[in-house]
Specification:
The complex is a heterotrimer.
Chain A lengths: L13 H9 L1 H18 L11 H14 L9 H35 L6 H32 L8 H28 L10 H8 L4 H26 L6 H10 L31 H9 L5 H4 L2 H4 L6 H14 L10 H8 L9 H5 L2 H6 L5 H5 L6 H16 L5 H12 L24 H6 L6 E4 L2 H5 L1 H16 L4 E2 L10 H6 L2 H17 L4 E4 L2 H10 L8 E4 H10 L14 E5 L13 H8 L4 E3 L29 H11 L4 E4 L2 H14 L6 E4 H7 L24
Helix pairs in contact in A: 2-8, 2-10, 3-9, 4-5, 5-6, 6-7, 6-8, 9-10, 10-13, 13-14, 22-30, 26-27, 28-29
Chain B lengths: L4 H23 L4 H22 L6 H8 L1 H30 L5 H32 L15
Chain C lengths: L1 E6 L1 E3 L21 E3 L1 H17 L2 E7 L5 H10 L3 E5 L9 H12 L6 E5 L10 H9 L3 E11 L2 E8 L2 E8 L2 E5 L11 H9 L2 E4 L1 H4 L7 H4 L26 H12 L4
The chains are: A mainly alpha, B mainly alpha, C alpha/beta.
Amino acid sequence: MTPTREILWNINALGPILLYSLMAIPFVFLAFGLARRVRMWRQGQPEDRFDRLGSRIWHAVVMSILHGRIVRRRNLAGGLMHLAIFVGFVTLFIGTVIVMIEADITVPLFGVSFYRGDFFLGYKLAMNLAGVLLILGALAALYRRTVRRPATLDTAGDDIVILAFLIVLSVQGFALQALRMAVTEDPWGRWSFVSYPMAVALSGLPEGWLRGIHLANWYVHFLTNFVFLSYVAYSKMIHPFTSFANVVFRRHQPRGALEPIENLEEAKVLGVGKLEDFTWAQLLNVDACMHCGRCLEYCPTFTTGKPLRPRDLVLELAGYMADRGGIFSGELGQGENSARYRWGAGPDRELIPEVVTPAELWDCTTCGACMEQCPVYIEHVPLIVGMRRNLVLERGEFPEEVTAVFTNLERLGSPYQFPPNQRAAWTKKLDQPVPEMAEVAARGEEVEVLFWVGCLGSFDARNQRTTVALARILQAAGIRFAILGKEECCTGDPARRIGNEYLAQMMAQQAVETLNTYNVKKVVTACPHCFNAIKNEFPQIGGNYEVIHHSQLIHQLLAEGRIQLDPDSALARGKVTYHDPCYLGRYNGEYDAPRAALAALPGLELREMRRNRHASFCCGGGGGRLFMEETRGTRINQARVREAMDTGAELLAAACPFCMTMFEDGIHGVGAEESFTVLDLAEIVAGSMIAPTSPAGGDARPEAATPDRQE
Amino acid sequence: MLTGRYGITSAAAVVVGIALILLSELGGVHAARVFGTALISAGGIALGVLVGLDQPRRSTGLARLRAWRVSLGILAAAITVVPVVVALAAALVALPGAADDGRGGTAVLGTLIALLMLVAAVGCFVLAVRAIRRAARPVTPGDPASAGEE
Amino acid sequence: MKICVTVKQVPDPNLPLQVDPDTHRLVRNPEQSILDPADEYGIETALRLVEQHGGEVVVVSMGPLAAADALRRGMAMGADRAILITDDALAGSDAPTTARALAAAIRPEQPDLVICAVEATDAYTGMVPGMLAELLDLPQLTFARQVSVEGQTITVHRDVEGGTQVLQTSLPALLTVTASIGEPRYPSFKGVMAAKRKPVDERDVAALGLAPSEVGPAGAKERVRAVELVREEKQGKIVSDDGSGSSVDEIVAFLERIQVV
């Protein structure tokens, strides 16, 4: 006898009539809920995300199946839980479709039946396995939500109801199978390894009873399915549609590049002052959020108790969108969700401050931890910068401290109140002169690389030491380089991230013009913010250069043996920990070069912090925060300094002047000046250099090696 | 819009689809089933999209339904779990009678599985009812305290 | 109420200044010139009063055509319109001539209030406001750090030795404000764009009804004889601590020598 089963066993004609006729209802509900959302997205500004649609969809499918951003080393439990539910659900769905193909297409139309034999047995096994996975995954999720309750996870009614649906549906499926097999006594029943023992247990009951209970369960099972399907669009279960769409239409530009406001002087929309000012893809972003809270895990503002929680910001927008005619993903969580995210407070609220508060917007350090963590590629920072732009450009509202930064940038080309002709003042600390590009060009010479010093490296006393150290390294390696001197200006990074797009474009334009005047090809900088702007944002306005970060250059010089280090250097002894700057690591993917450079000093033992590499924790200085007072929550820089000290290291290696400033301040803040030091990578390397054979390198024990703290 | 050309076409598709299903199940023309299903699905999806893309409107019928949402939700939850609870409970009751044909061990295992599933199903019911009741409580938007947390 | 604010375009004080050795005048490079930061306080004061009571803010300046940039900045902050007194004949005017020209431009406006900075950030004479008050026949309230208007009465608070003086007079009046009046707003981009469409009314000497002999070097009663650089002196002394305690004595001795203690 060939293994198979009778489809619609125990069900008379009424069953399929009801099943298929009523099918229209869940489809109406599902399509309505989706269309409602699409209607909202279409109110956004135009933006082209339809390029290379095929590869976009392919990538999204692969990411969904492989769970690329869901199962991660740091989110293993939650990721595997989701994977179990996903595999279970999808397998069972495919199983249902297979039965439908057999019963409704191949048999009635072509007289072909494939639902038998080995295929059937394998199918039974797979379906039982899937059911188990689904139940276990959903139970784990319930446990997580009701018992473990991690701080980053908020649970609403919807979450519970979805999981209850999944568990009950699976249990119904198993019960149906067991009831049927208790009557039919299939000899191959063991392949259904979960239902078979239940079938055996049930087999003692009279057949009439079994058939009756089976019939009731069959009708209720399909009705439950229909109710669940109808519910999907009004709950987080919509995520296979919205989140998938969000992955398809994700932004492909480098994440370090903010979209400029094109043609600013004529632009009608200055940043985001109302919901419709977001692009459609950003509105889709908002709807794609499934409240998972992973964006909070490495978020500097959430972790230090500030009002900004990236998830909440997105959901406040989602709630507002729902108030204006959309649908909140989790209507059944109304009580909790509305309390948390102000959903339901009305459609006529002003976006800022009634939906999103200025405090939330100004707290962001733009570190990108939220975006790196988000399993569905929501981009929080552009949302925040968009709204900041509106506050700055349209309303002229921003933290008071920023006024001076803007004024200085505008007049002096730097956030600090120093005249441009003092930019090269630090070169006096070197024995060997550093040529300026203007002189080099006047002599008709060329340089290998332009050293872009940056404003902090030029004017800030502490960071000048890094600049000097890097110049020493370049000189020791015999690299022909020059600086721009008084012609250098800000790249526009802080202004752009604070939201002053006008000023940012002015700065970037000026910088690109200068670089192009000298036909610069290659740039090295010790500032990841400059690095990111030059690499990712200058191409937007016709500035294309090869730019490398000093950690990369130092690593390269060490690897090529162009600089020699003293393995017994006094500086390079003991335990060191390295802090990944956001704009070098997360935004530009460079994690290894700085570590490799440190590894060149065998006396140094590298101790990693708990939060490192792509899950690094911000110093608190990005997004213009360096220039603002930290008035809410606890100090971000002190949190990071404590974490660095917890590794047992005495030395913190930095690779960014913003981080340097924040950490110097943080070390003072925690009162660890005696026991803990922060040095830039360049300072550590320059301080350990063996004087090169040429007399030019001179003083191999630069002052960089002896950190003096008076500033 | 439901009264527009597309609306009428979509609704007609659903009706014709149902007719095909009746033909298939009562008339024995099983080949008609898949076409009926396709028409019903497409018609349903089209209706949903048409209404969804249209201006939102206040519907008094939905508002009245909303007023009953807690009771409806609990009722639905109960209908959902009662048959499966009966089935699983039956497996517990049937154990003594099933144990005599040499498959006693399997039967005990089956009973155990049924018991676990029973607990899961009932637990889900309880949690879902709590969640439904909780969701319906009046709250002040933006005030986490009024949701009974934080 | 209508408020006239006098403003001046000055070389950016953060950048190195250059003086023409022949004319003894500041070299004014329009690229490196800005609205006098001291004037921003006056504009801020005017804007706050108008936000409270309604009315109009007019910024008035005398200078080369390029000084219109400074006026635009004032309008970007929120001033409604501008008057630029510009004429080649005016170059080299002294304080009284400047006051006369400003008075001639302001008088027909019949403002309720004229606001000036205490002094300009380039020459620091501080003479124009007083002269302007005299020429316009207005009571002057100087060094205000707080201003309020009620009906036709204006009240100012000003810091004096050992306390605060509260002065009151009836409008119209002239006011000079200090930096304590409140942080000036940073013009939003929207403001900058709007300022481009706001009118700048240019007036030459003839339009003001002044004779060419009254203005410029011809009308000036003062002559700049020489301009000298301040000799840079080391203002501090670094005493390094060698742990012996002698550095303390050294510091005390130093402080006694310069008669601080």
